[in-house]
Write a structure and sequence with these properties.
Length: 248
């Protein structure tokens, strides 16, 4: 589900030019694993700027941070997540800023200082109020249990999903590298399917199986995402210019 792409896209095109000296930005870096699932069939077509398998794409991204810091604040062993749903019958680019809802979940184990740090990072790498006006943040337990090939992720009492990787035609796991909608966290991921996926928060009642599942590893930092946002702004400006010319 291409939510991180839209989050950065929103930030890139809505921030006005800075005329005064830029405010000092806190540097951050996180290393860990991405667990992701959505309602689309595998592989999720949203990463390729195609329409979702169902009428909408509803899904999540969960980042388990093995090692990380936000300035001097340590973030080792914590997690952040997002659940969101796209508008009906729209590609991700066409649904920019119009998501039905977007909810960020912050690991409740984090202390107040860590929570602020995780919220700041989530605003860069996950969809926040830039993706939807129907946005909120909740603090819940975020856990993962690995049993053989199955990864079971639980978000408080509102969400669970179990995923497993699929085998590639030549053996090993099936991997997708640098899809059109890739951001730094999604530079490469292994492809899989869910066994089951449920979600009962934000006015939703999802209960799906055999849908898209993705597993990735990442090491990303604030400099990468600042550079990514700048490049995304240029691409968006070019796209708007092209569309404006075509509509004349």
């Amino acid at each position: 589900m291409k939510t991180a792409f839209l989050a950065l896209l929103a930030a890139a095109v809505t921030i006005p030019p800075v005329l005064s000296a830029p405010k000092e930005v806190t540097k951050w870096k996180i290393t860990g694993q991405l667990e992701e699932a959505c309602s689309c069939n595998a592989a999720c077509p949203c990463w390729f700027d195609s329409k979702p398998t169902r009428v909408t794409c509803g899904g999540n991204q969960v980042l388990f941070i093995q090692k990380g810091n936000y300035g001097n604040v340590k973030l080792d062993g914590l997690a952040i997540a997002n659940y969101a749903e796209s508008p009906e019958d729209k590609t991700m680019m066409d649904s920019f800023g119009k998501w039905k809802f977007s909810t960020n979940y912050i690991d409740e184990k984090a202390n107040p200082e860590q929570r602020k740090a995780l919220e700041a990072i989530a605003a860069m790498v996950l969809p926040s109020n830039n993706a939807s006006t129907n946005f909120r943040t909740a603090y819940v337990p975020i856990t993962r249990k690995i049993e053989g090939k199955d990864h079971l992720i639980t978000i408080g009492s509102v969400a669970t999903f179990t995923g497993h990787l699929v085998e590639g035609g030549l053996g090993g796991s099936s991997r997708i590298t640098n899809p059109p909608g890739a951001d730094p966290i999604h530079h490469q991921y292994a492809q899989g399917k869910t066994t089951k996926m449920t979600y009962t928060d934000s006015g939703q009642n999802w209960d799906w199986k055999d849908t898209n599942y993705m597993l990735g590893t990442f090491t990303v930092d604030s400099d990468q995402y600042t550079k990514y946002a700048a490049g995304l702004a240029q691409k968006m400006a070019a796209k708007q210019k092209t569309e404006g010319t075509e509509n004349k």
